[in-house]
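Let us begin with a simple case.
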Amino acid sequence: MQWTSILAIYFLIWVLVAFVSLPFGVRTHEEMGVEKTPGQADSAPANFRPGRLALRASVIAAVITALFVLNYNNGWVEVDDFDFIGTLPSRRGS
């Protein structure tokens, strides 16, 4: 696998992990007991930290990408492993 492919896969996984982890650890102003700005939505986060989110997404995406590349190279899980009905032509041995 080329390094550019690995980089693209890492970026896609990073974006997915970042969006999935957005709601974790965020509290509203009401939950933290902080006064809201006039016109602010009730659900607006009071403690959003994009740096921490980016760091967390980077570490998790690196682990997932490493597992993906290892699986790609070693063939631990293949398409045939998900054919529970037996309708796909077998790709093993080719």
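The second case is a distinct protein. As before, the sequence precedes its structure tokens.
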Amino acid sequence: MVDALSRYQSRREQLARGSASNGGSLEVIGDVLRRSERLGREGVERALQGLSRGDIDTWLRAQKPEALQPALLRAAEEAAESALGEEGEEAEVWRTSSMEGLIARDRAESAARAIGEWESLHGPLDGEAASRLKAFREGLGRLDAALRPKARWFIPLNPRRRAERDILDTAERTRAWWFTERVDCDDFLAALSTRPERPSPHLQSCSECRADLANTETVETPPKQHMSADDLWRFDMGLMSAVELSWVDGHTEKCIECAQAIWALEEGDAAITKALALEEHEQPAPSARTSRTAGPTARGPGAARLPEQREVLEERREFRVVLVRERQRARLLVQPLAGRAVTAAVFLAPGKPSLKPQQGPEGLQFELGTSGGRTAHLMVRVGNSEIFERDFSF
């Protein structure tokens, strides 16, 4: 693998030879400008003089800063993959692929810097070109505001990120959060898995690591003797939080009485499902009680338990997104419409791998697990270009 400094030295030589294309030279110029303390500025002025206003405008027309967001989200997923497995060729592949997303953001920054330097020589852009430049910079600003607080996602890449940081000019490092933010927080990953009794010197001094570790601690639930009637009803209606569900799982492993109560609920649900199926077969016009898409119509112990609840989260011409709740579990359906090719990814936590979809008769299906106070992030791609994103609760 070519080290970071050699890669930028090669780009500087490309600039000095004048072999970069007009559009690509903006990124090359900016790369050299932002690392001039190590690389010098050979070829920069000549390259800037060779670019016309039309060249700058053509480059700006092709830019979509919002397209960097899925690239960085994918980089976060790949960084997590590199940290989850054992060291080896596969982990190296994940790290290399993840760094490509960070480098894409860095090259956008380099192009913006090059345009600023070009304006200092030729005068400010005007008209539509000036508007496009403003929109480009604002788009990068929105992207950074959303993702900079999540820089911990890229901690598994810290050795490579440090190599990139160290080549940047000192004045550039504050802006380049993708290479510099949380770049010395390597101990955070080890602490997540081992929870050391004595924090390392870094963890003692880093408020961000301490806050992140505190946020990942399991919330302790006060001990109970048995599940109450209200507990059983809330469990049956799917109203328990994730913490409460965790307590129920642990408690019923030890308490046969409460386990039997849960089993009775499940047997009752099976009987209701069977009865509703017979009722639907005998009565062509379904009542509100038998509707599988309606929400609960009663609130309290003894209320009728519906086998399934569905909620349409999004409906567009190309696809429909449906959240399906069945007791304490949930799944998400992404249903293609209008014959368009649709792909999707669901992330339950930032920086974690996406869920694996299953292809079924209703479209792509994602098993979300237990429901109750949880959130996830959905990405849907239509064809090869259009991307839809949203967060949802289940």
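DSSP finds 16 helices and eight strands in the chain. Confidence is low (pLDDT under 50) at residues 218-222, 284-306.
Keep these points in mind for the review questions at the end of the chapter.
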